[in-house]
Amino acid sequence: HLRILGWTIIIVSAVVGLVGTCFKNCRSRVSYLQLTFWKRYMEKENERFDALSVEYANKLAERNLKSFFENNKPAPMPFPDHKAWEEISAYYTFSSREQYYSILQRYVETSDFPPERKPILECETATT
Questions:
Q1: What is the C-alpha to C-alpha distance for residues 126 and 128, in angstroms, rounded to an integer?
Q2: Per-residue pLDDT tens for 56-112?
Q3: Are 44 and 37 in contact, with CB atoms under 8 Å apart?
Q4: Quick check: 94 and 85 in contact, CB under 8 A?
Q5: Transmembrane region positions (predicted)?
């Protein structure tokens, strides 16, 4: 009886997962290709975030260790404030109303940076 119960649970879980995936894809407001692009973008953004996080953590650790051992005041290091970390840590779901592929992109595109620090990623459409 336990084998039958086990196989029943496995089969029911697989069917529920399949139906849920199909339902989610059918009810999605974005196209399959756009959803595929979004997933790939998120993977790449996460990979780059991890790499840059390691790089910045190394620089910060190096700066702090040098400051400690050389008994100097540390050089200033640009770093996001707590509010920025809070904003990019929120959960994000793709929306066809906004042309952002992640919460990080939305933060960068809508933040009020000084002109010299404004990110350059504006896609202009050519009018002919």
A1: 6
A2: 999 999 999 999 999 999 988 888 888 888 888 887 776 667 778 888 888 888 887
A3: no
A4: no
A5: 6-23
